[in-house]
Design brief:
InterPro entries: MeTrfase_7, MeTrfase_capping, SAM-dependent_MTases_sf. The protein is of the alpha/beta class. It has 15 helices and seven strands.
Length: 452
């Protein structure tokens, strides 16, 4: 999945620093949900390669940043010590491959939840996250009836085909709340013009089941039927995980309004894709079901063990994942083993996208009001009373003024109506269209921010 996102990451960084825009003296990078293992530092290597490539291949030769600060983020329980122990070999390999170009590359840990603030204001240039945002901040509390204490998602450990409709709604609302917080926090931390690229396990629609978790749920149900675990303990257990649809991700980004969604791509992979990749020289790997089943069971154990131990205890874990491997083998011949990943590229831009300089006199709030008021007077009336013949031309002129006025940046950071500013800026970035939405947003802007 990380390798699939590399090309998108390269395109995003290249676009952010194209033309004559120079890299900052110190380029700050954050990898959110970094985990610990052999893949942890791959993203760091990829970004350093991309920056070097931009500097050497650009028509206008760019200087490399004088320093790189890399922040690896995950929850405090992550095994950061293992990462730290691998840093010396990483630095040695970097020096061997790149010489002294990246001698001032400093890697540090930033433990904490990415659903809250992690870094100072306006400090990050590139933010990356791979296969992490489908993890929720908590299991939705509404999954249990407050009065009767009855579990609504009995027999399931996540959103499943057999989950009642209200469970889908509860999980979606928790995802919307968490993802909104994530975007809002990152909007404070990322510099103007900064880039964020993330991949998230997705679904074809909001009620699409996540097959690998359903298979884990089947193994747990079998153990409950055999009294190896308590049925009540299983009924009250839900994973803090939701895999959204493309539309659900897009809706939250647009509603929150801090970022311009540059790309949202979908790619399909299989649950045992890593095994397939490592075994691609073996012509018989499709028939090697036992090893494939164990491969899936092992990486699921690495991801889920701590949560399962907390609910069911350590004594059942070996047996559970042995059963999971067998059920994976069984399901491979019967079920669709593909799942969707959503790959998103976001830009944080306060100032204008279109460098249109003819409206330079409108550089402060009062001048903007004077310039816009003749165009907006007619729009203050109800839509049905406006003269539609001149509507589009006036709209176009107004957009040029708004797009090129820097006072939006000040309002975004300081105004109590920051959400309105974010919404207006998002509307501005969508291009000329949906005139009624434009009219509504611009009139709101005039009434709130422009005196007189």
């Amino acid at each position: 999945m990380i390798s699939t996102a590399k090309q998108t990451l390269k395109e995003s960084i290249t676009e952010a620093y194209c033309n004559n825009k120079a890299f900052p003296e110190c380029l700050r990078i954050a990898d959110l949900g970094c985990s610990s293992g052999p893949n942890t530092l791959i993203v760091v290597s990829d970004i350093l390669d991309i920056v070097e490539s931009i500097c050497t291949q650009s028509l206008n030769k760019k200087n490399l940043p004088q320093a790189f600060q890399v922040f690896l983020n995950d929850l405090p329980g992550n095994d950061f010590n293992t990462i730290f122990q691998s840093l010396s070999s990483f630095y040695e390999r970097l020096k061997k491959e790149k010489g002294d170009k990246f001698e001032h590359c400093f890697i540090a840990a930033s433990p904490g939840s990415f659903y809250g603030r992690l870094f100072p204001n306006n400090s990050m240039h590139i933010v990356h996250s791979s296969s992490s945002l489908h993890w929720l901040s908590q299991v939705p509390k509404e999954l249990v009836n407050k009065q009767t204490r009855e579990a609504y998602n009995k027999g399931n450990i996540c959103v499943s085909n057999t989950s009642p409709p209200m469970v889908f709604k509860i999980y979606l609302e928790q995802f919307q709340k968490d993802f909104t917080n994530f975007l809002r926090c990152r909007s404070e931390e990322i510099v103007n013009g900064g880039v964020m690229v993330f991949t998230i396990i997705g679904s074809t629609k909001s009620d699409s089941p996540q097959s690998i978790l359903e298979i884990l749920g089947r193994a747990l149900n079998d153990m409950a039927m055999q009294n190896i675990i308590e049925e009540e303990s299983l009924n009250n257990f839900n994973m803090p995980l939701y895999c959204p649809s493309e539309r659900e991700v897009r809706n939250v980004i647009e509603e929150e309004g801090s970022f311009f969604l540059h790309k949202l791509n979908v790619f399909v992979t299989t649950w045992d894709a890593g095994f397939t990749t490592h075994q691609n020289n073996n012509n018989n790997y499709n028939n090697n079901l036992i090893e494939r089943g164990k491969y899936v069971s092992d990486y699921m154990r690495a991801a889920m063990e701590s949560i399962l131990v907390k609910q069911f205890g350590e004594t059942i874990i070996d047996e559970l994942f042995k059963r999971l491997a067998n059920k994976v083998i069984e399901s491979m011949t019967k079920e669709n083993w593909q799942y969707k990943n959503l790959l998103a590229t976001l830009r944080f831009v306060i100032h204008q996208f279109v460098h249109y300089q003819s409206s330079a006199l409108f550089r402060n709030e009062n001048q903007l009001g004077v310039g816009l008021r003749p165009y907006l007077t007619e729009w203050s009336a109800a839509p049905e009373t406006r003269k539609e013949t001149s509507h589009k031309s006036k709209l176009s002129t107004t957009l040029h003024l708004l797009r090129n006025n820097y006072c939006l940046a000040d309002h975004y950071r300081s105004s109590q109506s920051a959400k309105l500013c974010r919404r207006l800026r998002w509307l501005m970035l969508q291009g000329i269209g949906a005139c009624e939405r434009w009219w509504y947003a611009i009139v709101l802007y005039m009434r709130v921010f422009i005196p007189g």
